[in-house]
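Meet the record:
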Amino acid sequence: MSTHYSPAEREAHAIAIAERAAARAGVRREGGGAAEPPALERFVEQTTTFKLEPWQERICRRLSLLPHQTGQRILMHGPPQFGKSIIVSQRFPAWSLGVRPLSRIRLACYNLTHAERFSKVNLSIMRSDDYRKAFPSASARVPEKCPADEWSTRARAGLLDANPSFKALGLGSGFTGLGVDTLLIDDPYKNREEALSEATNANIRGWWADVVLPRLNPETNVVVMFHRWAEDDFAGFLMRTGEWEQYRFPAIADGAAHPAPDAMGREAGEPLSPRFPAEYLEKIRSEQGLSFYALYQGTPLPPGGEMFKREWFKPAEALPADCSFVRYWDKAGTEGGGAFTAGVLMGRSGGVYYVADVVRGQWSAGNREAKIKETAAADRRKFGHVSVWVEQEPGSGGKESAQNTIMNLAGYPVRAEPVTGSKQERADPFAAQAEAGNVRILEGEWNAAYLSELTAFPLGKYKDQVDASSGAFNKLALVGEVEELDELSDELSAYTGK
């Protein structure tokens, strides 16, 4: 009958074998008896020149549990140059391998050079006399010479299983055939441009799905450190694909609950570290703008929004009787996933604009056209004359799609508009009027999703409601021209009818 051992029992047995082999080879156990390993906090302070601050101690306490846990998923944000990588990437691997010399640690950074730099720090520490005193077992020794990208403790090497103790990786690097007990990902992006690149994000998500996940096992621990450049960046992707423990350490406590509350529970306005006072951080905020929130606060946007702020949109109990209306459609064609189709109905009375209704969904092309026609009929019954506009995407496919919608809405005043300029440029006139207090919003079930998307723009995952709002506003701002076109359309329809 076979005996089942726990991971700790298997490791103790393997280490005993490795140490007996070392003894036979004439290698003695340094320091004599089995010393209790130092706490991670003490180890970090012994191998650095600074005393840990409370938030750093919190990180150490959480990481120190990992050698005794399995299947943990941790997302962690801390401001740049505050010392998080020194703990997580430059000290924790060395400490963890002293505690568990058979562990397999993989460290991935935005490129291999960066990961190898951290690897060299760990090797230097593990070769020091202080490390030998802290972890006297010969099983935790590492070679005096070895490649920076891959190396093993004596215990791990003794298993002869071609699985190194430490492997440095660049994002996108493969590690086929190598298992992993602890995977550390330290900042997957080199800069803002990479983080906002759809191609880069697609590559990182593909690397995670095709390279990383097949290497994991139910006992693997994963720790990801990041800056939050956009709602749909790598951290945002991970948050949507599983249960992750989140630790956000904003440089200035902001009282926000999203994407995660302050891990230290501070009062709003309190700085994270006495080394970086609030006055200094406010100066950086004024110089960096949006980048400050991504780098220092762990959120893509200020809590109240950036280009659009929630408080700008005052509620309206009813619509004025003299409103001119436009329903503007931003179309997508994927059913049950991907981008949304959105149709925003906006009215204008004098110099005030009213967001009156939003129709939004993930429909197939056929169901989408049916919904657009159904909405046009409902708008006519409720509001009378409503101009309908459709955003025409570039290329022949976009033109054909817009023409199909126009044919579908025969009998309605409908036109297509080829898009020009960036989404931000098209949204800027609408944002300016909202900031000036000239935009109202009619109460409806769609309000929450609508305002959430606007306040996340331009870094949110979805932009369809913003695009449709910008289009409707820009048409209403030229309401005289719209009405002239509609009158001409009506005359042509009447003439054709004769």
In short: The chain has 19 helices and 14 strands. Confidence is low (pLDDT under 50) at residues 1-8, 21-34. The chain has two domains: 7-297, 310-497.
